[in-house]
Amino acid sequence: MAKKSEAELPEPPNGFSFGNFIQGTKEELEKVVWPSRQQIVSESAAVLLMVALSASLIYLVDGLFAWAAKQVF
């Protein structure tokens, strides 16, 4: 595959252009596949359930170690 000559490559813009930034941001946001409300609720519930289960497990293991420490010391 032949390389493009430097004349064919677009020149990068000099500096920062707020207008180009906003336009590029809008173009990228149009490409995003947004989740449905049902999907958001379902995944949020799953996350909350896993956090609650993890916190409960940590609490129980901490209690076990505290009990074991009291028995030893």
Automatic annotation (TrEMBL):
Chief location category: membrane
Residue ranges of region Disordered?
1-21
Q: InterPro entries attached here? A: SecE_bac, SecE_sf, Translocase_SecE/Sec61-g
How does the entry describe its membrane topology?
Answer: Single-pass membrane protein
Q: Which UniProt keywords apply?
A: Cell inner membrane, Cell membrane, Membrane, Protein transport, Thylakoid, Translocation, Transmembrane, Transmembrane helix, Transport
Which residue windows are transmembrane per the record? Answer: 46-69
Q: Where in the cell is it found?
A: Cell inner membrane; Cellular thylakoid membrane; Membrane
What residue stretch is flagged as signal peptide?
A: none
Q: Which family does it belong to?
A: Belongs to the SecE/SEC61-gamma family.
What is its biological role?
Essential subunit of the Sec protein translocation channel SecYEG. Clamps together the 2 halves of SecY. May contact the channel plug during translocation.
Tell me the NCBIfam families matching this sequence: secE_bact (TIGR00964)
Complex formation: Component of the Sec protein translocase complex. Heterotrimer consisting of SecY, SecE and SecG subunits. The heterotrimers can form oligomers, although 1 heterotrimer is thought to be able to translocate proteins. Interacts with the ribosome. Interacts with SecDF, and other proteins may be involved. Interacts with SecA.
**Protein name as it appears in the record:** Protein translocase subunit SecE
What is the source species?
A: Nostoc flagelliforme FACHB-838
**Source species taxonomy:** Bacteria, Bacillati, Cyanobacteriota, Cyanophyceae, Nostocales
